[in-house]
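User: Fold this one for me? It's Fatty acid desaturase domain-containing protein.
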Amino acid sequence: MPGPAADGRQVPFRNAKEEIRARIEVSGGGGDPQRLGGRGQRQIVVWRNVVLMSLLHLGAVYSLALIPKAKLLTLLWAYFCFLLSALGVTAGAHRLWSHRSYKAKLPLRIFLAVANSMAFQNDIFEWSRDHRVHHKYSETDADPHNARRGFFFSHIGWLFVRKHPDVIEKGRKLDLTDLLADPVVRFQRKYYKITVVLMCFVIPTLVPWCAWEESLWNSYFLASILRYTISLNISWLVNSAAHMYGNRPYDKHISPRQNPLVTLGAIGEGFHNYHHTFPFDYSASEFGLNFNPTTWFIDLMCWLGLATDRKRATKPMIKARKARTGDGST
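Assistant: Here's what I get for Fatty acid desaturase domain-containing protein.
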């Protein structure tokens, strides 16, 4: 569930236009767009990220023209890499390390850390720290991708500017000893750059080239660049679309929504109103295995003896919360 607002009260969710209008009024109508970052803070653009993300997306657009020329195995391999990297985020950094919603034995933690490096969305420690801040201070200046600042900011714009000081301040106050106590997290953080180069770019490119003689050009742009760009944007939709579009059957007082399209793309992460209401639930959904490949994976790992202690919200708990704070939808 979201934490308290910056002033100690729960601030109702507003759309981007309302938020900009409110901040202009508070600042006296100065009109400086760089000061719309909250409390009059001037936003410092990280031009390196702007350039790199622009080049990455241009490369992805070019990659689309290569699809008809590629071998079917290459396209299937790219999709497999997408699923693998997605699990590194959803089952790994998110449900395991951020929320501790289940326990994983060492072989599974190593696998998820490797998959997380393929995802290239910051190392497990940093991802989990920022996600815990996001939950505790959701939709405030301490939220790294505060949806109250609009779709673009919550989707990708938050990567184009320096973090708001509140994000850094609140992040430093969190108890992260559980993350630092995990040797897998420490190892991945120490060697993150090396593992990212290997898992996100080198291995996805070399496998099609070596195994079924795909061209190195097609392998790189399809299995690395296009796959990586798509996986990033689908993950970002959880921060943007799933905080703006959909119903709120569990808590109508918070912005996260149930978004079926995000659920399909993000292998089970679009039940966002439920997740913010019951963040400890390993399934991140009331519906268990339905439309939730990440839950399938965790259940399979439990069946294999590699995962244990799955946490769940009980049916009476869910029913009572729906009746008390839900919007009446299902």
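One thing worth pointing out: Residues 16-325 form one domain.
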